[in-house]
Amino acid sequence: MKATSLNCRTALVLSAAISLLMNLLFLVMFVYGRDAVMPEDVDRARKTLRLGNMLMHILANFLVAFTLYMLNFWLLKVNLSAERKWLLIVGLTIVGTAVVSYLISSLQLQFQNFGPHPERFIRGGMFRDSFIAVMVVLSSQVLYLSQKQQQTALENESLLAENMRTRFTALKNQVDPHFLFNSLNTLNSLIKVDTGKAQEYVQQLSYVFRYTLQSKEIITLEEELKYTKAYCNLMQIRYGESLQFMFDINEEHNLCSVVPLCLQTLVENAIKHNVVSNRQPLTITIATHGNETISVANAVQLKKEPESGEGIGLSNLAERYRLMWEKEIMINRVGDRFEVIIPLIKR
Fold first, then answer.
1. For the domain that residue 299 is a member of, what is the CATH number?
2. Percentage of the residues of the chain whose pLDDT score is greater than 70
3. If you write DSSP's letter for every residue of 214-242 in order, what string do you get?
């Protein structure tokens, strides 16, 4: 919600509201009260309550309120301590009220016809203006505190958003060197075994790295799947028939949003932590589900000595989803089957 500004427009609106309210109250007091007007003067007083005089009363109250509002708004913006600012507001408001009230009362006597006893109508003007002053000071303080609170909330939201962007960028930057390290290790191993496959691997790898160098924070599932399949081709060049991939994707989910490298991270983790050999082939299944999720699942056949690494993959992915959408990924292990479920975000 946008904070109310302490400016001329706000002063105009509030002054108009106060002047109308004050004249409504004093009109009722004037019509039904008997203290301010002597009984023998009732008929004459009612005759003087013409439209022009009432408009002059409204204008007078408006000018007092508007002047005091502008004074208070200016003082609230002065760079002083809270105690000094409050004392300055109270002192200048009292002086300002007295001066403005005197000037307006003098103008009323010059331009309005109150009959032979004008003091009975002007009497109470200082009390009325003091009441307006109290309303102005209190409402100005409420507006100022409300504006300050809203500005603080907006600043906190801005800092939180900036912190989230910074953390997200840091997490994403962790993925790129991690992937580069593992890819170069794979290429190094492949060169020793089959130079032809190594050349094909380099070509596929060039496409994969073009993808990882992108700056997007959100991509479509279709884009991520295209990249993941290229990565899977790289892994199959290395492992051959020992590694198989199964894709069961409903194209209706292609335009859903995911974070970059989410599927690749899970595929990489599955290969890293499980045995992949001719005697123990590994099958990784990537499938979408009707509840707007996609999963990466594989059989659990853990290595006795897992590959070295920083272990940032899964925790990194979970943190990125929490930062971006406040969503949680699900990790299921039932028997010898391990599955990670990622939410798909509808656009």
1. 3.30.565.10
2. 74
3. ---S-EEHHHHHHHHHHHHHHHHHHHGGG
